[in-house]
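User: Okay, second chain of the day. Same drill as before: sequence in, structure tokens out.
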Amino acid sequence: MSRIGKQPIPVPEKVDVTLQGLSVTIKGPKGELSRTLPEGVTIAKIENSIVVSPSSEKRLSRERHGLCRTLVANMIEGVSNGFSKKLEIVGVGSRAQVKGKNLVVSAGYSHPVEVIPPEGITFAVQNNTNVTVSGPDKELVGNEAAKIRAIRPPEPYKGKGIKYEGERILRKAGKSGKK
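Assistant: Same drill. Structure tokens below.
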């Protein structure tokens, strides 16, 4: 049995949880999330906590047990506190700005790249080089941050490009000069 899956998920006061079979809908101050969990698990609300358990002792049920518990815990965390990822833009002339809801990134191409956020995701820019992607859905926040990073991934020689905050770029030695 999964060690993570055994733990009950505490539900804060300001969060409302609705269970219908394997469908979970969670409403909170940061938004509303819903998800249908895969077969093989059962979910129940007991007082102020949610308990996820495998529906049988089959391998598939045991595999999905911890995953489903973590998915529901992330949904509760997202609607109560939200998630955010921070990116840094490194390089001369590379910058970002928010126009309306969209993010416009100038990263050394002949044209600026415009990123349109999906519903629930917001962009914020500080000092033209620090981008923050935030929203209630952890998976969506991570995907949008990865799309922004993919515009110009950091290169290994000078480290120019878009990287996650705190990401360590493995550097390579350049060409050696004449001796």
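The helical segments are 3-6, 59-80, 138-151.

User: Thanks, on to the next one.
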